[in-house]
Design goal:
With 386 residues, this protein is an alpha/beta fold. The chain has 12 helices and 15 strands. Strands 2-3-4-5-6-7-8-14 form an 8-stranded parallel β-barrel, surrounded by 7 helices. The longest helix is centred in the middle third of the chain and has 22 residues. The model has no long low-confidence stretch (mean pLDDT 97).
């Protein structure tokens, strides 16, 4: 979906396909047919933006085989879909029964992360619509906090920037990569991103602001964005997502409600803001066990809940944080980023009674999320384009 900002520039809105992960090119083509095109039709649009997640196997195929890339490009065109952004965070196995800590491998000290991201950039350059010259890729925030080789990581990102420069010279397409801060990682917050990104100081390497992660870490959107712009950090894209919020985690009924979201597939880092600073656990189950996390103040859990449907009381979502962030990013005289991506990948991890029971219900839900995002954008003065 495209929108005209009051300054005349185009802002793109997509939804991320990691909600129905596929490991191979054939799987991606099936995904376009079974999921993405039906969402477009529900929205009554001739064209819909999607943020592709390409697993390592699919990325290698598309990067090494020009015919495969042409096949994907033709399928996108035929189904009324377009791609200006990729989710390069998960490497593979995002559809596995247990993802948890695996999603942080390989990290940016591993040469394979550089090669994979380079391949994604080359693929994206070949998928961009003819009238679009800028693409974006979100990526791992360096590493999970338990292991990190800062020197190798910085060298890898500098090499990536050089490769992106060369790619623009070759193709005329400008590609940028954004580190996506996430609780528990080396770059957990936007503040944590300032030092590594200002050290690299290259406009092609910036940040992806995920509004669920921002909220989980209790960051104020205006303070965070102001710090990024003051430091000259490029906001490559923003993922529009909402976290799980519990106002009174000490109450038994609140803990019971939270326990329904404690599931085995994804990691749901949980945080609370105390007078001594941010406290947290790696997963929601740990927070609920005993006294692992203080419960005298609200908790937020890294669980991407549907934007249009907040959990039932006594829980809620951090949708207000998303709204404040979006206002700051695109509500001013000029957009601070032009790539927005709805990313609710946890539909099938929701409590059983909230999960979609058929592809049609999932498509309805994704379309409802995009409708909410569209309404927020038009409310900020942007005009929806055909």
């Amino acid at each position: 979906m495209r929108f005209r900002h009051p300054d005349g520039s185009t802002v793109h809105l997509a939804y991320c396909t990691n909600v129905h992960p596929a490991e191979t090119l054939d799987g991606v083509l099936t995904q376009l047919r079974d999921h993405c095109e039906p969402v477009r039709r529900r929205l009554g649009r001739d064209r819909l933006g999607i943020g592709l997640w390409l697993a390592a196997d699919a990325a290698r195929t598309l990067d090494s085989d020009p015919a495969a890339l042409r096949t994907l490009r033709a399928a996108l065109d035929r189904r009324g879909l377009e791609v200006v952004t990729l989710n390069g965070f998960p490497y593979e196995g995002f559809g596995a029964g247990e993802v948890k800590y695996r999603v942080y491998k390989p990290d940016w000290a591993d040469p394979e992360r550089l090669e994979h991201t380079t391949a994604l950039a080359r693929v994206l350059a070949g998928l961009l619509p003819d009238d679009v010259t800028e693409g974006s890729i979100s990526t791992l925030p360096l590493a999970w906090r338990t292991s990190h080789d800062a020197g190798r990581t910085e060298k890898a990102l500098r090499t990536l920037a050089e490769r992106l420069d060369a790619l623009q010279e070759l193709t005329g397409r400008s590609l940028r990569v954004g580190l996506e801060p996430e609780p528990g990682c080396v770059v957990e917050t936007t503040r944590d991103a300032l030092a590594p990104l200002t050290a690299i100081a290259h406009p092609r390497i910036g940040i992806c602001v995920d509004t669920c992660h921002l909220a989980t870490s209790f960051e104020d959107p205006h303070t965070a964005v102001d710090a990024l712009t003051a430091a000259g950090v490029t906001i490559v894209k923003s993922q529009l997502s909402a976290a799980l919020h519990a106002e009174h985690p000490h109450l038994p009924e609140v803990r019971t409600a939270l326990a329904a979201f404690d599931e085995p597939r994804f990691l749901h880092q949980t945080r609370t803001a105390t007078a001594a600073g941010l406290r947290g656990t790696d997963d929601l189950g740990e927070a609920l066990a005993g006294e692992a996390l203080p419960d005298g103040a609200p908790w937020r859990a890294h669980f991407h809940v549907p934007l249009h449907a907040a959990p039932a009381a006594p829980l809620t979502s951090t949708l207000p944080v998303l709204k404040d962030t979006l206002t700051r990013l695109v509500g001013g005289p000029h957009p601070l980023t032009r790539h927005l991506e709805v990313e609710t990948y946890t539909w099938q991890a929701l409590p059983p009674e909230l999960r979609p029971r058929a592809r049609t219900q999932l498509a309805d839900g994704i379309a409802a999320e995009l409708t909410l995002a569209r309404d927020l954008l038009t409310g900020l003065g942007l005009k929806e384009l055909p």
